[in-house]
Amino acid sequence: MKRIPRHAAPLTVLAALMLLGMSFGCAKSKETAGLQGKWVDVNGDTELEIKGDGMTIRWGGWTEEARFQTVEENGVTYLRNTQEDGYFGLMSDLRVQEDGSLSAYEMVLDAAGHSFRFVREEQKAALLEIEDLSTDAPKTIASKELERFSLDFMNNGGSYDVGKDWPTGRYRWEIRENGDGTYTMDFDVMGDSWIAVRFSEPVEEEYVRGLAALLEEQGIAAQNGYYKRNAVDRAGYELYAKYASGETLSVCADGDAAETCVFALRPLLDYAARQNLPGIG
After folding, report:
1. In sequence order, what DSSP letters do the residues of 82-131 get, joined into one string?
2. Residues 135, 238: one domain?
3. What digits encode the pLDDT tens for the residues 20-51?
4. What pTM value is reported for the model?
């Protein structure tokens, strides 16, 4: 944002301020009474203490004082720092969500910054509890013919015993039957701002049958329907398979529930690497 020179003439300053108000879409102030008190980050240890229009931000052992105003734009309410161009250090302005929580993001270059979700201190314990949403129970799969397979997960330098020989990033592996008896495999690994692996080529039916056999050998059907989560913003994992018989497998977890994978990922990745994945092996 362009700053107004200190020596600007009064009329110039007035015009600039009018334009500034227009740039916020006729934003209007709102009361702060409902925001008073202590807020804690579900995704970390940052805390907010709001008193009047003052805010104390505690980041671990570091404390920052700020003053803020609330503004409404297009039906959304924001908290903006009145002294630092709207932001709070590396944290963006705070958005009031429909559930009453406050959200913000960490503004860093060339990386995925922290996601803040502030709730009332007394609400945090309940949000950290892991929900078990598992359905459709363990099963056996009669079919040996895969029509669709996908695996998504985040590897942070060797997560889930993957090993450090596999790159860090978000993994997406998919195999699909094209409707004519042929198969295509996509295997991507995406870093914060780069592509670590990108593969998209036809694969043989024998290879797909081998994958179906590996899923059976690993006993993944015994985990079918597994789904646990909590409110923490953490990358989870999901495995999905659909067979020619119409049978399906689904195993997934989100938040803290995804700290441990309930099936072995490394054998699946070793099988994926039988194809000529660029930069692997």
Report:
1. TTTTB-BTTB--EEE-TTS-EEEEB--TTS-PPEEEEEEGGGHHHHHSPE
2. yes
3. 333 334 444 445 668 999 999 998 899 999 99
4. 0.70
